[in-house]
Specification:
This protein is of the alpha/beta class. The protein has eight helices and eleven strands. It has a single domain, classed as Metal-dependent hydrolases (TIM Barrel). The protein is 27% helix and 23% strand.
Amino acid sequence: MKRFKADLHIHSCLSPCGDLDMSPRAIVEKSLEMGLEIIALCDHNSAENVGAAMRAGTQKGLTVLPGMEINSREEVHTLAIFQSENQASSMQEIVYRHLRGTNRPELFGDQVVANEFDEVEGFNDRRLIGATELRLQQIVQEVHRLGGLCIASHVDRPAFSILSQLGFVPGDLELDALEVSPHHRPEAFKGEVTGLERFAVLSFSDAHFLEDIGKTYSLFLLDSPSLEEIGMALREEAGRRVLT
């Protein structure tokens, strides 16, 4: 087993709040520059750029996991991370069926669909920044049904986090881990808030700009760079574990 440096919360130019320089290819190149070995592309309520990022990663030798950051009915942001593009696409179909509204680029920004060669292939006109009609419990259940991992996003933030919106983590909510923002150290935050003892606490960049990629990351002790191995590390199985 070896250490893997991972940033599993990166947005692309598809996210309305993501910088237009955040193309799939540019993300992969910056990730390698920062010494990352595993990344996950998690745009708001969409996985339309994950295929391009995965292909760009394969060309450059970087593991890119497909995902999305889903906004629940309660306005809780949650990372849904998968091993295959098909799994992410299946989750996207569910999200799209429960997402209402049309994007207004003048207010929220463009939502660019790009390929691995930095070419624009189109624009997503859904209101990706909005909340879905899916309850948080439904999101977790669907992600697990499709074989993915579900990580509560930036739980220490004063908005769009499980703690800001609900005030606690429900005992029957089977999250795989919690993410804190770059402003807190994972273990320190875990000790400050009661009720988090059962979760692994991670930290990622939540990058919307190229210069933020890899500034915050987590280290995993794994046999190989795969979602299955990361899941084992979160559960501390067979020697796999989270190192930071």
